[in-house]
Amino acid sequence: MEQYIIKGGKPLAGEVVIGGAKNAALGILAAATMTDETVTIDNLPDIRDINVMLQAIEGIGAHVEHSAPHEVRINSHQIHAMDVDNEFIRKIRASYYLLGALLGKYHHARVALPGGCNIGSRPIDQHIKGFKALGAKVSIGQDMICVEAEHLRGSHIYLDVVSVGATINIMLAACMAEGRTIIENVAKEPHVVDVANFLNSMGANIKGAGTDIIRITGVPKLHGSTYSIIPDQIEAGTFMFAAAATKGDILIKNVIPKHLESLTAKLIEIGAEVEEFDDAVRVVASKRLGRTTVKTLPYPGFPTDMQPQMTVLLALSRGTSTVTESIFENRFMYVDELFKMGASIKVEGNTAIIDGVEEITGATVFAPDLRAGAALVIAGLAAKGYTMVQQIHYVERGYETFEEKLQALGADIEKVDVDDAKAVRKFKMKVG
Ligand code: UD1
Question: Has this prediction a pTM greater than 0.90?
Answer without folding.
Answer: yes
